[in-house]
Structure formats: structure tokens, C-alpha cells
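MODEL INPUT / OUTPUT PAIR
PAIR INDEX: 1
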Amino acid sequence: MSRIGKMHVDLPKGVSATLKGSHVEVKGPLGTLSRDLPGHVELKQADGKLAVERLDESRQARANHGLARSLVQNMVVGVSTGYTRVLVIEGVGYRAEAEGQRLTFNVGFSDPKFYELPKGISVELADRGAKLTLKGIDKEVIGQVCAQIRAIRPPEPYKGKGIRLQDERVRRKVGKAGVA
């Protein structure tokens, strides 16, 4: 039995779930998320809790059991409290600017790089454009946006310049030995 899959998903106050076959829709104070669950599992609702159950004991059902529970849990947390990720830009003169849903990055290239934020994602800039706080209700979309922004200028190992997640540790290299 999957340790993750056998746990119940509690629905906080103000959050409701609608089940239609393998399709689940979760509504909360921050918005609505819907998703088709992977095969070989079904979702049952009782007493303000959701439970994921396997339809059979096949290898695919065992693999999807914990996955389905995690997907539903992420949806419930997203519509109730939301997700936040912080990106840090390091480097002299490196910064970001926001104009609506469009971000402009000046990160050491000859011309600025642009990124269009998807619908449902908001950004706040701090430290004169060196710190970006991304907020949204879909954990998958937030992670994808962070990965795409980080890919504009990944942190380099010698000086640590570039775009990285706030809790990311960059392994630093020593560099040249210098003339004695």
C-alpha cells in the first residue's frame, strides 16, 4: 500500500470538490482547479475528506495511487492558500522589470530578455528588481514558470551570477590559480 496514497485529503473550510468519473474539480476562495486523474484509481468523498483508492493491484495502479493523492492535495492547497516561489537575481546591474504580465530581464546580455507570464500568475518585485515573488494557485504552473525564468540566465559556478530560486544553493568553483 502506498504510504502517500492511503492518506486522506482534508478539505478546509470554504473548499469543495466535485467528482465526475476520473475528473475532479476543486473550488476555493482563491479560484477553481480541475484535472483528470491518472488511470487505475478512483476518488471518493466522505465527511469533508477525499480518499484515493486503487481499482486493482496492477503495477500501474500502484504507481498512480500516490501520484493521484498528491495531485489532489496540491489542488486543495492551491485553492485555499496558494503557492509562492521566490527567485533571486544576482549580478552587478542584473535586474527585472514588470509591465503588467510581461517581465523584462537585464541579465548581462546585449539586449533585454522578455518573458510573458501565463494567466493566473502574479509577480511582485523587490530589492530594485533583484527579487521576484511569483504567486498562483497551480503548483505545476508555478514550478514551470520558475524553471523557464531561471533558464534565461542560470547561475554560473564561479561568481554565482544569474537567476536562481531563493533556497537554491549554487556550488561554487575556485577558478584560476593566479601567477605566484
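PAIR INDEX: 2
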Amino acid sequence: MRLQEKAKQVGFEWENKEQVWDKVKEEELELKEAIADGDQYKIEEEFGDLVFSLVNFARFLNIDAENAVEITNKKFTKRFMQMEEKAMASGSQLHAMTLQEMDAIWNQIKRDKD
């Protein structure tokens, strides 16, 4: 059983998604503070807290967080392959391009809607 489901069963649960989103924003701020402090352990801990809160928010949206990440990974892979194709079609390769050039191709692919 997932941790968040177990907590829900005993009443340790938010009332609505707005409360969960507030928690996500709180965890984001704590991560930013940890990054500013430069404590690698604390950064990792706060990053985990943020991810945990986002997974909880996904549950409130009736989204399977693992499936959502899988969809994003597939979309990224498809777009990245399209970037490579566009670079080769223009006579270049991604490793020879600037980040700005690659970003322009990426944004064009996003506009073209996969």
C-alpha cells in the first residue's frame, strides 16, 4: 500500500487539492533555501519532500504520477529524436549547436504538436 493511501486511511489527509498545492509551494521554497545553503544532504531531502508532495497532489487530481512521468519520458524521447533529425536535416548535429539553437528547435517541435 502506498504511504499516502495508508495515511489517508487513518485520517491524516488534506481536505482539498488547494491545501495540497500550498504544501507543494511550501516544499519548493524549502528546496530553494536548501540549495542556497549548499547542504547537499538537505537539498536531496527537500527535493524528495517536493516530489512526495507532487505525487500527493497528483492523487488529488486522480492522476497516476508514475504513468504521468512515463508519458513525459516518452514525449521527451520523441521530441529529442525530432531535434536530432532537424539538426541533421540542416547539416548540423546537436552537440555542435548552442543551447539557444537547440531550444529554438525544441520550441518549434512543441508548437508543431508532436
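PAIR 2 NOTE: The chain has a mean pLDDT of 90.
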